[in-house]
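Lecture 7 notes: from sequence to structure.

We start with a single chain of 273 residues. Read the sequence below before looking at the structure.
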Amino acid sequence: MTPDAPRLQKWLAGLGYGSRRELEAWIREGRVVVNGEPAQLGQRVFERDRVVVDGKPVRGSNRGQRSRVLVMNKPAGVVCTRKDTQGRRTVYGDLPRLKSGRWIGIGRLDIQTAGLLLLTNDGALAHKMMHPSTGLDREYAVRVRGRLEDYALEVLREGVMIDSQLHRFSDVQYYDGRGHNHWYHVVLMEGKNREVRRLFESVGVPVSRLKRVRYGPVLLPSRLAAGKVAELGYEDLKALYRLLKLPLNAIRDPGRNKQKSLLIPYPQLRSRS
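Now the structure, written as tokens:
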């Protein structure tokens, strides 16, 4: 046994097959085979090993692969799965092509939620950004009918038990509105399935529109139209990787030096992931 041989899910994530969490599920489902045998969680892989994913041999290396991060303004009605059995449009349909690996979504949005979706070809980055212990928060713009009473805002901050779990916003701020429609900005740490909608429903206020506007230090630029994609420039990549304490494989692109930053100042993390 070679102690520095990478674990299978980490190795595949580095090649762009998905996040570690996603790949762990694939291994459990039997979609990954090593040397003709079903793969096991946590097993290490060596240069001589033959790895097959969904019946296709894994080839290539992530050495020299340039780290990339895309910022998408996802429209409502588009799904975040790679393939959809109902034939609905997916976020992966019109992305830039990669020479190797594939794009990995960082934190899904449900079909009716619009806004900021990050995608990367770096599985380690995706894993780090999605792992709860990393401590990256998410901010959403929420439209509801009417203004919330003070007691309702306090409930949303203190937390509500839903399915035996405590759900809460770390911050809730009134943003704008007129007539029946009013906007709030809320911040939470993980973004569990339908968490924002369920929290507002718990105080009797259904959400009529939901949009993610920030993920950690990355902001959704107001100039980015729905369905369009922007790419983080070198300086933003360098700052993001430094924040997450990950090695960056990227080069300066003189043509992108004047690109406006999509990051905001963000506190240092004390990650254990």
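The CA atoms of residues 6 and 237 lie 25 Å apart. Keep this in mind for problem set 3.
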